Amino acid sequence: MNLKEKLIIIKENGYQAPPEAFQLIKEMLKNIGSLDTELRDELIYTTLSHWIPGNSPTANELEQLLPVVLDNNHLLYRLGETNTDSVFTRSFSMLVIPLLFMRHSESPFLSKEQIHQIKENVFYSLQEERDYRGYDEEKGWAHTIAHAADALDDLAQCSELDETDLLTILDLAYEKMTITDRIYSDGEDERMVRPVISVLNRKILSKTYVEQWIQSFGDVEKSSEFLPAFRQKNNIKNFLKSLYFRVKFFKVDADLCPTIEQTLYKVEKVYYS
Question: pTM higher than 0.70 for the full model?
Fold first, then answer.
């Protein structure tokens, strides 16, 4: 019986973990970037999303899995490639990290050193990621930026991360929301706002710094070519709008709204003049 057949049976049984669950998890990680969308999305990830937060692997087993998730065959697999199938391995390895934090929040098992290792690898992976596809019509979800944003959101909430780390999260959000390669079309802007809100909720960064960070979106160096500049401008506008309404909705630093408005007007003067 192959992995897919085993996982289908497990799904039909309500994701009840069998005695050999840990071995199955290791097999799932080996196949986490499968081009079979059913196996990758609906079986491997969904099974992991039930088992890891649901206390199926022991804390010791999760500690054995962590370096695998973060290694060069998973999170960092062929990092920097564009439009290749390696993106699915990186992206779905990234998606395991929030599951680990869900388990950690219920029953802490990660050491400070392990959290910092996760942080370093996530930061590096997002910084070097160049495949910005969301949904691929043929192969399904790549969604690297959205998945990385989910991991950043969990990291931003960790007390182990200090002011420097929170500044890095904002820098990474800025870097990935100002790309010129494509216009994000699969909710990446909304997902990237979540870690920003978590950074604001920590109440560590000064209001002046956050305002300057927002204003920097209006001062981004624009490409001299029309299409790259057009894509970038739309990414910035979408992100600022998402940030504006999330700040307003959650009433977190709501006095930042005028700064976001002014920056948005600066980015797209033709519509606001």
Answer: yes
